[in-house]
Amino acid sequence: MKIVHIVPGMGGSFYCENCVRDGDLVNGLRALGHDVILVPLYLPLSVDGELVETGAPLFFGAISTYLKERFPLLRKLPWWSGKLLDSRYLLNIAAAKAGSTRAAGLEEMTYSMIQGEQGHQANELNHLVGWLKDNVKPDIIYLANALLIGLVKELKRNLQVPIICALEDEDIWIDDMEPRWQQRIWTTIRERARDVDTFVVVSDYYRNRIQAKLRIPEQQIHTVHIGIDLTGFEAVTSNAEPVVIGYLSRITEAFGLDILVDAFILLKSEPEFQRLKLRITGGATTDDHQYISDIKQKLIKAKVYDDVEFVSHFDRESRLEFLRSLSLLSVPARRKEAYGLFQIEALAAGVPTVQPHTGAFPEITELTGGGVTYEPNDASTLATQLRSLLKNPDRIQVLGRRGQEAVFAKLSNMTMAKNMLKIYQEAINRNVDSDQNQRTGEIDATET
Prior knowledge:
This protein is an alpha/beta fold. The protein has two domains: 2-229 and 416-440, Rossmann fold (3-Layer(aba) Sandwich); 233-410, Glycogen Phosphorylase B (Rossmann fold). 48% of the residues lie in helices and 13% in strands. The protein contains 18 helices and 14 strands. The strands form four sheets. The chain has a six-stranded parallel β-sheet, with helices on both faces. The longest helix has 35 residues, at 413-447. The chain is globular and about 75 Å long. The protein starts with a strand and ends with a helix.
């Protein structure tokens, strides 16, 4: 099967769960013998901190797309002129900037992209379609999220193949926008969703949430839980001494590092936790620098800064080493996340997780049995849950072992790829049947 995966690049300045997930899915599909072509949009594709050479051009380059949205006269320039702006050097700079990962201020561009052939990026869409038609001729196309749904109509019209669209945290991005834009964008996505053959959602929690929002028929949406490449995790078991709590995610307010830091400070005030350590990794953008500075000042003021380590590298090998050093992991995200890849990676390493009882975190915890959840999501409650586990090291061992066994049994990238392939094949079969029925109808009409 020849499969095209169209995915937004993120540049690599922070731990991108979507990027790791897409990369692991592609690797799984390729390991099963299928030809998968990655097509990046906006920014160069980075997985595990390393730029990925996809063999495909970069379409909808972030700089030229943004400038053409802001300055209408630039839309009249030749298509190739945008490639000068979207050099690898300039895009790498843009990737580290705040605006590339913040919804506020990108409302018009997001809406224009969702409009597809009716939006301001119609010429770039035509080039994408032309390149796929001339160079790839895929059997099926996968879109990494519903913010790319504007591509669907032209892709289907020109390539005559099924389109699969993943759903993952679109609500978080859109609901950060001005209210007047939120309604327009949701309405347009709902209308464009009719052109999609099948939706794939990353958790039952998000399926229930987004299905009602987009009014997707039950038979058109499927849950495929996130799976990770387990290579190397077999040898990773926690040997943390002294006890170490870890945080693995982008270091930003939305993921609640300040909540974990406040809980850590509370625990450090107790004599029995004087040797407790905190390790933090995940990267950041310029938007996060003040937030990180404020956290460091808080740690200094509490006189516990020397017991905290900010780990700069978060590529795959660095994450394995990081997880090996932990006793527990907690990412007290303030938002209702569709899934938590950091949760699955920690469990694969035998490290139990302590997560707020929101979003998909309870679902992953129940599916694996490798952690606990708490509510409300505040420092005092988190400290209470951490204290309970830290006083019971045998329970930490049991949770870690149970979680690791469950991830290896249920949440590998090979399992994810096999589940996805079933959906791909069903969509292709329906498409073939539809074409045959259409041709039969045309023949009957001609004979009549």
